[in-house]
Amino acid sequence: MTTARALYSMVTWAAQPLLRRKLRRRAAAEPGYAVAVGERFGRYPQPIDSLVLHSSTDPLGQFVWIHAVSLGETRAAAILLAELRAQLPGMRLLLTHGTATGRAEGEKLLQAGDVQVWLPWDTQGAVLRFLRQFRPAIGILMETEVWPNLVAACRRRGVPLVLANARFNEHSLRKARRVSPLARPAYGALAAVYAQTEDDADRLHAIGAQVHGVFGNLKFDVVPDVAQLELGRAWRVQALRPVAMLASSREGEEALWLDAIRAWSTSRTDAAQPVQWLIVPRHPQRFDAVQQLLEAAGLTVSRRSTWSLLPEPADVWLGDSLGEMALYYGMADVALLGGSFAPLGGQNLIEAAACGCPVVLGPHTFNFAEAAELACAAGAAQRVPDLTAGVAQAVQLVRDPAQQAAASERATRFARQHRGAARATVRELLQLVRRRTVGRFEDSDV
C-alpha cells in the first residue's frame, strides 16, 4: 500500500462518525438516507449466497455488480442493464448507490434474485466486508465514481472493475491531478474504461486510466416510456396555452427564472397569448421550497401530485414526481435545461431529444459538453447567454408552431443518430469477463 493510500485510509476511517451525522441530517429532509445505514459501513443482516445461480442459463454464477451513485447514473445503468439481461439471461444483479434518489430509482430495475444495497464508505474494512459478502463476478462503475480502496480491493481479489459511460471534464482532471498519488493508482488499476467522448478519453488517459473504447453516451439508447410520453402529449394538446418547461432545475435557477419572467413581461409589447410554464426541480427535497418561492412571487402553483385526469389551472405547473421525465417532456413544446444557467455543468439533454422536445441551453454545460455541442450543431438545441435570453427564446419558439415542429423533428433525429453505446459496452464487458477466471477469490486483506 502506498503512503498516500495509507493516509487516505486513516482519514476515511476517522471520518465515519461525521458520515453518520451527515446521514442523520440528510434523512430529516430525505427519509431514504435513514434506510439500512449499516450497509454504508459494510454491515449486512445476513449472508448472501452469491454462488447459487438464479438461473441455470447464467454463465457467471455470481453477481454482476453495477454502481450508480445517483439518479442520472441509475438511469444510464438501466439502459446498460437491459442490454446485459438480453445477453446474459438470468443474470443476478447487485445494484449499489450513494444517494436516496438513486436507490429509489434503482428499485424499479430489480428482478427476482437481485440485490440492492448502498455502496460502502471507502474504508478498507467496509470494502472488504462488501466484497466478501457478495463476491461479484465483475464490477461496473457508472460514469464518475472511482474510490481508491474499492479499486485496490477489487484488483487484489480478482474482481475486474470497469468504469463505463465514463465522463471526465477538465475540472475533474484538475482535481485528480491535485491528489495524483491517490488518483493515478486508482484509475490505473481499473480493468478497463469505456469513455463517452474522445476528449473524455484523453483526460482519463492523462490520469493513468486504461481506455479500451470510446462508445458515446449510453443515454442516447434511452427509449422513453411510451405511456408517459403519450399522456404528456395528450395533456399538451388539451392545454390552453403552449407549454415551456424549466427542466431539472437546480437551486438558485428558479429565482433566476423569476427575474427573467419579470424582464420578459416588462419588455413585451404585443398581446399574444402567454405561455404555460412547467417547472421540474432536479431534487425532490426542493419541491416544497420551489412552491414557496413561486407563491411568494405572487404566482399560483399546481403540483403534479394533485392532478387526476388533467393538470389543474395555475400560473406554473410544478413537476413534483420522480421517474416521469418522459411525461414532462411530452407535455412541453420546449425545455430550458436546468443546471446550465447557474455554473453547475448542465443536466442531461439526451432524454429531452429522445422525446422530441427541443432544448434551450445556458452557458454552463461542461458536464455534457460534447452532447451539448452536437445537439446545437444538429439544430436540436440552441444556446443562449443567460436565462433572460432563454425565456425569450423559448417563448419565441413555442409561439411559432412551424418552427417548433421543425425543432422537434431535429431533436428526435439527433437522438436516433447517436445510439449504440449500450451494445458496444456490453460486448466489451462480456469479452473482459471471458478473459478472466471467474469465481476465484482470496480472503486476503486489502
From TrEMBL:
It comes from Acidovorax soli. Pathway: Bacterial outer membrane biogenesis; LPS core biosynthesis. Involved in lipopolysaccharide (LPS) biosynthesis. Catalyzes the transfer of 3-deoxy-D-manno-octulosonate (Kdo) residue(s) from CMP-Kdo to lipid IV(A), the tetraacyldisaccharide-1,4'-bisphosphate precursor of lipid A. This is 3-deoxy-D-manno-octulosonic acid transferase. It holds the Pfam family Glycos_transf_N. InterPro entries: Glycos_transf_N, Glycos_transf_N_sf, Kdotransferase. It catalyses: lipid IVA (E. coli) + CMP-3-deoxy-beta-D-manno-octulosonate = alpha-Kdo-(2->6)-lipid IVA (E. coli) + CMP + H(+). The record marks E143, K219 as: Transition state stabilizer. The lineage of its organism: Bacteria, Pseudomonadati, Pseudomonadota, Betaproteobacteria, Burkholderiales.
